[in-house]
């Protein structure tokens, strides 16, 4: 099967949610398919930074994104913009900054994971 036709499981560590994402679909598009409010969507082109996340585990392809949003050092540490990443395997992702605030908004305070170190 061609990688673009494959489906991979994406696990959002902050909420415990899992969703299927196609090999030609961005992580952000897959999140939107969850059909729940609170998924932040901005420019979809890698320039606004609202979907900033960290890939904790898994292989992916990252398209060009603004260095004002993700530095070269951050990119090397797995920090990406979900609108510019397509999976190449199952992925674990951690939301950062505005994305984290948005995706965890529906959780009770006791259920919210602690903020990751920056």
From TrEMBL:
Organism from which the protein derives: Pigmentiphaga kullae
A Pfam match: Fer2
Membrane-spanning residues: none
Segments forming domain 2Fe-2S ferredoxin-type: 6-99
Protein name: 2Fe-2S iron-sulfur cluster protein
Listed Gene3D superfamilies: 3.10.20.30
Domain of life: Bacteria
Sample GO molecular function, one term: 2 iron, 2 sulfur cluster binding
PROSITE patterns in the cross-refs: 2FE2S_FER_1, 2FE2S_FER_2
